[in-house]
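Figure 6 in text form: structure in, sequence out.
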């Protein structure tokens, strides 16, 4: 494993959406070794599957699994590869795709998306984050044991940062210490191509959504994309299951709830972004592309 640089931690103001899903989205737990480095995957043994066996006897870190993330990871990837990647790069572009993943959950999406990008021989600098301590621990564990398939030849161009937390407020990232300021400065040292935010907006205070678009406006390069995914209301309406979910969320925390897409669109436009595509997804979710 090559150590490229160290990353510290920030603390995030809202809880991970993966940690409070309904019983149908319950999390399973397995154990894997711990590490916290920024890794380049060029000199690592390549097993037949992307990840090491979870039966490692050195296990000392909990890794969670999310059935809902397992179900939606491929439909989301299909939109990324068919729609978003062509918006971001030419086929002959060899520069790394710089991606910030906000509210990354237990790491299922990180693993899947990075693996699929590597299969397409796309260099990537991936920055995974999550607020919830258990999810953040799981992210670290998955990054620690992450390996690429045997047929991937661009391993030295695939880099995943140590997972860290962002604290979002209405004005963007809240920098609580000199340490957190350094991390934000490091990640934002070059413009980002893509920001991914899956299942956060409805399970966080509204200020987190304001902060999300503020971060996008400040750190995306020209032509960069913010992708969000989750349930929304459209013209104040949604399918019955999403309306019931909205009521359930608000019963847990008055600051949560399924948001009106039109209201989110206004926030985007206030930050210089336009919604360029809304894709209907399984389980009554929408994938929204802002540029």
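Output sequence:
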């Amino acid at each position: 494993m090559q150590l490229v640089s160290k990353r510290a931690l920030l603390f995030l103001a809202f809880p991970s959406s993966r940690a409070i899903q309904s019983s149908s989205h319950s999390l399973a737990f397995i154990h894997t070794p711990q590490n916290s480095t920024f890794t380049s995957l060029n000199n690592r043994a390549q097993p037949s599957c992307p990840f090491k066996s979870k039966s490692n006897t050195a296990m000392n870190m909990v890794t969670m699994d999310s059935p809902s993330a397992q179900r939606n990871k491929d439909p989301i990837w299909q939109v990324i590869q068919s729609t978003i990647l062509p918006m971001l790069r030419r086929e002959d572009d060899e520069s790394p795709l710089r991606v910030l993943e906000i509210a990354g959950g237990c790491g299922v999406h990180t693993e899947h998306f990075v693996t699929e990008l590597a299969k397409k021989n796309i260099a990537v600098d991936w920055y995974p984050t999550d607020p919830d301590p258990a999810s953040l621990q799981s992210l670290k564990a998955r990054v620690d044991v992450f390996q690429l398939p045997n047929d991937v030849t661009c391993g030295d161009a695939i880099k995943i940062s140590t997972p860290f937390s962002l604290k979002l407020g209405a004005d963007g990232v809240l920098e609580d210490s000199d340490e957190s300021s350094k991390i934000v400065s490091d990640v934002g040292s070059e413009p980002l191509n893509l920001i991914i935010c899956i299942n956060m907006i409805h399970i966080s205070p509204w200020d987190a959504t304001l902060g999300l678009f503020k971060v996008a406006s400040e750190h995306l390069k020209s032509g960069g994309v913010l992708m969000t995914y989750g349930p929304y209301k459209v013209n104040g309406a949604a399918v019955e299951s999403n309306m019931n979910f909205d009521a359930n969320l608000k019963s847990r925390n008055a600051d949560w709830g399924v948001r009106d897409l039109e209201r989110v669109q206004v926030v985007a436009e206030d930050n210089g972004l336009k919604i360029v595509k809304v894709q209907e997804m399984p389980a009554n979710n929408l994938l929204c592309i802002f540029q």
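Caption detail: The two ends are 35 Å apart (CA to CA).
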